[in-house]
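User: Please fill in residues for this 509-position structure.
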């Protein structure tokens, strides 16, 4: 072990910390506890909890055992959790005390008898707080890995957010996290000298991938359980945090928070957020208010890693850019026949590399479709720009087909976002008896302004073809998003549409 005393993990809630030697002891001890409870290689284990040091230890212990972690979004409805965990066929359930009641109900419903508690004790639950002294490092370190535990073994099943349909379980191999770490060194310049604030939840590909990456690189991870900007800035000051990743919805509050250290006085060097979804105000506040570098990223659970990254200068020069593809990934832009398109022409992004998922759990047909020809079909349409950067056009799954014409919602969203009185916007297709589908925009106006549908209609038509202009505009108070910042368009399209939302009478095309 190269850095036995270097701090590996710090629990943001309790301030407990462990070095790499002690972390190894705890992981091996917990893996042995799982074995004694009857868990074996290939067993799926559900996890329900917030980011913490014990949660991270359990993830590593399951990997040591060769069991498959199934971390779950704690915000999901009971029925959604039950469906996902039943689909995974879990053999055990791990929970923290805050989610023990809901986990108990799930375990009872699914007849899961192996139940492990990350913190504290409770009747019917086996505690995972075994003392490190009970597991001498020398003895446990000699324990051989079970047969089948290697880079190609499945490590984790992460269920997709389900923004376009039923959630599917993405199977990620042990090797995924090595490729993820390679990408982080090549893009974010993450290293063993960094301290990463683990705010993004471990049930998310970005949160889980950054946890593994920083530990693989020998750096420090500080867990953060809540989306609280004040707590996050306090953690930066207390633990010398150098990298924070946020998502839209918390990014502006973090970048402009009054308790942020003055520019040039903090250990923080990098703020990462979601490229294409982040506002220019956040980019500017990161540079001017915090005095640190901004970087934007894009990715999918299926790719097993962040897929592209854009630097602060690239975003400043072109707010619509998605930057370059990560170093460990090969990519293509293709048409509907999977033929390569010419530079400057829109095409679906295909990815190939060591991080890409092995497939969807129990979904061979969906796996064959998504991984057709050995390439991950992202469903996202991009254009290759001069200089080698990518600009997203939109998701193929959100494509609006209206009167024989194709409309990519994000293109319309980008135009509406330029309006000075628009705070946020989403565009989606809704059924239309004449045209098949028509375009509808959901707009949040900035406080205290009078914004009309006619004004927005004129702004769109001034920049794009008339058939792309929204025929309906609904003014809303909130755009629903999932934890990764993606717009939940299925929730928007489920809202009623009436004639009061129509921009003008339907015109001839």
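Assistant: Residues filled in for all 509 positions:
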């Amino acid at each position: 072990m190269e850095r036995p005393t270097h701090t590996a993990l710090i629990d943001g809630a309790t301030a407990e910390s462990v070095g790499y030697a002690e972390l190894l002891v705890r992981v091996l001890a917990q893996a042995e506890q799982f074995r004694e409870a009857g868990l074996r290689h290939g067993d799926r284990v559900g996890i329900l909890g917030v980011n913490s040091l014990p949660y991270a230890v359990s993830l590593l212990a399951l990997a040591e055992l060769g069991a498959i972690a199934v971390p779950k979004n704690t915000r999901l409805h009971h029925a959604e959790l039950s469906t996902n965990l039943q689909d995974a066929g879990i053999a055990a359930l791990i929970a923290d005390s805050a989610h023990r009641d809901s986990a108990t109900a799930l375990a009872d419903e699914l007849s899961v008898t192996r139940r492990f508690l990350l913190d504290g004790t409770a009747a019917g639950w086996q505690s995972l707080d075994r003392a490190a002294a009970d597991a001498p490092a020398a003895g446990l370190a000699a324990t051989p890995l079970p047969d089948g535990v290697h880079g190609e073994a499945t490590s984790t099943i992460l269920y997709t957010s389900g923004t376009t349909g039923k959630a599917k379980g993405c199977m990620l191999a042990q090797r995924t996290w090595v490729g993820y770490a390679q990408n982080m060194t090549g893009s974010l310049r993450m290293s063993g000298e960094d301290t990463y604030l683990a705010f993004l939840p471990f049930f998310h590909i970005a949160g889980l991938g950054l946890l593994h990456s920083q530990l693989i690189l020998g750096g420090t991870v500080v867990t953060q359980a809540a989306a609280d900007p004040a707590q996050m800035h306090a953690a930066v000051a207390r633990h010398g945090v150098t990298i924070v990743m946020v998502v839209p919805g918390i990014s502006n509050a973090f970048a402009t928070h009054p308790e942020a250290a003055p520019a040039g006085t903090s250990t923080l060097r990098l703020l990462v957020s979601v490229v294409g979804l982040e506002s220019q105000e956040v980019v500017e506040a990161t540079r001017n208010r915090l005095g640190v570098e901004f970087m934007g990223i894009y990715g999918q659970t299926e790719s097993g890693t962040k897929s592209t990254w854009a630097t602060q200068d690239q975003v400043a020069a072109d707010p619509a850019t998605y930057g370059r593809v990560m170093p460990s990934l090969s990519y293509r832009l293709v048409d509907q026949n999977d033929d390569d398109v010419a530079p400057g022409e829109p095409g679906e992004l295909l990815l190939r590399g060591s991080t890409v998922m092995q497939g969807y759990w129990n979904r061979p047909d969906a796996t064959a479709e998504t991984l057709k020809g050995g390439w991950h079909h992202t469903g996202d349409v991009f254009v290759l720009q001069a200089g080698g950067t990518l600009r997203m056009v939109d998701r193929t799954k959100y494509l609006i087909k209206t009167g024989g014409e194709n409309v990519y919602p994000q293109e319309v969203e980008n135009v509406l976002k330029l309006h000075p009185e628009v705070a946020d916007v989403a565009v989606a297709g809704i059924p239309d008896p004449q045209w098949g589908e028509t375009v509808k925009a959901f707009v949040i106006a900035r406080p205290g302004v009078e914004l009309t549908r006619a004004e927005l209609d004129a702004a769109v038509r001034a920049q794009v073809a008339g058939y792309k202009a929204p025929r309906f505009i609904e003014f809303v108070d909130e755009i629903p998003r999932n934890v990764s910042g993606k717009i939940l368009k299925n929730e928007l399209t489920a809202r009623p549409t009436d004639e009061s939302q129509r921009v003008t009478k339907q015109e001839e095309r």
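For context: Residues 505-509 have pLDDT under 50 and may be disordered.
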